[in-house]
Amino acid sequence: MRLILGDMSIDFSAIAGSGLTIAIVGWLIVFAALVLLVIIFTQTPKLIYYNSRKKLKQKTKKESVTDDELHVSGDVSAAISMALYLFFDELHDEESNVITIKRVRKVYSPWSSKIYGLRVWPRK
Amino acid sequence: MKKIKVMKKLSLIASLLILFLGNSAFANSSKLEDLLVNGKWINRSDGYRVSKDSERTVKRYKTLTFQNDRTFVLDSVKTKYSGEWKVLDNKVYLEFQDSKIDAKIAYLTDSKLIIGKDSYKSYSGAFAGLINFYEFTGVPNATLGHLIMVLVGIFFIFLAIRYNYEPLLLIPIGFGIIIGNIPFFHAEGFNLKLGIYEEGSVMGYLYYGVRQGIYPPLIFLGIGAMTDFSSLISNPKLMLLGAAAQIGIFLTFLGALVLGFNPAEAGAIGIIGGADGPTAIFLSSKLSPHLIGPIAIAAYSYMALVPIIQPPFMRLLITKKERLIRMKPPRSVSKLEKIMFPIVGLLLTAYISPSALPLLGMLFFGNLLKESTVTKRLADTARTALIDIVTILLGITVGASTQADVFLTPQSMWIFGLGALSFIIATCGGLLFAKLMNVFLKGDNKINPLIGAAGVSAVPDSARVVQHEGLKADPTNHLLMHAMAPNVSGVIGSAVAAGILLSFLM
User: What pTM value is reported for the model?
Assistant: First the structure.
């Protein structure tokens, strides 16, 4: 099959053979690889959390435990992490409460001058 | 007035100097032999091919020097020829040392030495040196193509600095384009060891990593060490979006076949739709090395232009109601699951598509370095210093590979067109598949179809675009974490697709 557009002709027979097969099979293989990953990682948590589920069932005396009961959601983890961070941030080491101000005399030297500093990054 | 007088005097001295330099060969010399040995005889003729593969020809100076000891040296583009000369009946007989070259006869007419079709003019040694110097500067070798490409390079740098579009890539590539398009003399068989395509040049050595597909796996190592797969592990069904978006690769492959590219070239062009620069370079280096330049530039420029390309199609295909869908927050993922993912992921994908092993192996290895938490130093190196070094080398050499005479071809323009189409198809594929998934999903399991656009593997740009578009519809609906799942699965999907194309077409 050929499509003619002015001076240009497009030959569709180029895809009729192996081209179309490669495209369809290729895409299906990509799908298959990722579907397998989906299946494995949907089932993995069930295996990993089998014991936890069992213990929770015994503890709560329920017949079934939902995923929400088993897992802590990302939001809850973030909230707990934030609370812990704020708590630990407020903790202080024991301090002496003695403040010492020490006068330092500096003699000017171009070697330590900020004017001649070479480590200043250009800013936007 | 005084200044003008001084200027006039100076110009007079300069003209006399030029006349003296240019014509000193003829001063006080009436005999042909004296004429021959004074100065250098220079010819400039066209017809030297730029390279084996190019039809373009360039002009080149040829210098003929006659010595008093009856020997001569002909300095041509490729080599120096030498031999002996003698004058008989006002004709100059040239016998070459190389017995394969026939002896030549030269005549002197109008102070020009005629050898065959070529005519040589006599100049002083200093002037001949100046001509030689001029010939090797950029000016006589510049073409319109070089100037266009320099402007393209500057445009890339502008996009990176002004709009912050992928600056880590566009700055090295843009500058590389400028480096690659500084004109210099080159002709077939004449190697200054300057250009990226010249054997033995420094740029050529650096480009070796691109040509042989060394840099892409190293980039993947860094990406693996940077990527957090937990959003994917917590909601594995989103991986399907990454697979759906790969339709761009395969439809563009068909499109390239229809346009007359051979299957290997079509496969390399199709991978642009994977929106993954390293994968595109890896595949094109294996399938059609002569197209690496345009394919890499197309892939990286479209990746940088994701914020411009994707939103119109997101708004076109996703209704306002769908854009408002709130997704269930992802569950927290255990360390064991995170460690299992790279191992299981590698085993599964590499068994299906072993040709993608360099990419997938390095991606999952990098991720294991990160998730194992006991190789922090290695993970840190992979995601900082290593990936930065490789990005610099990759960017600058890919940019420099766009030498105008190699890059500015109708084929490159087709590749750019197909690349854009590929990106659009991939985006639409992901969006439509997300809508399709929603038909089967119920309640709070429904997904916001906008995240389908992140199925193209431009990490993390397409996820960022999804977040941006989601916030436009609902300023409190954050989709970034959800969009990262199809985004990283797109990386895996495009690497698998590259492996499949490689095994089918190599």
Answer: 0.78
